[in-house]
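Hey, I was hoping to borrow your eyes for a little while. A protein chain has come my way and I'm curious about its shape. Take your time with it, there's no hurry, and the full record follows here:
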Amino acid sequence: MNEENLESGEETPIPAPSGLPRSNVNMPKHVVNEAYTTMPYIENITASSFQRFYPFYLGQHANRTNRRLHLIGTSCVLGFLLAALVRLSLKPLLVAPLVGYGPAWIGHFIFERNRPATFRHPLFSLMGDFKLWTEVVSGRRSF
């Protein structure tokens, strides 16, 4: 607040960062299916419909422990990918799927008690894992 606004009690708006329009500043962080509502299976998903698949994917991860196991598995996969790059070795890539899918499938079978989407839509499921991880790490979605 500046001196004039102190007297009137008005707040001075925070200026937009350079290159960012004012309308995008302080916008709420919107994420789809924020409550992880279970949704019916979507038949006939085409290659261009990940946006339709992702809310369904999130509904398959309503259990917090399942989500956390997915995040742990995805983080480990990223670590193994980094190790493969640093060591210039393919060996970490052989273990990465086990490290990633192991915790995720435990989460589905034991805690969520559903069938992983990986079995029907492996690519969209993998994309969903990384999108969920990105949203949580960036603070857009609760952990």
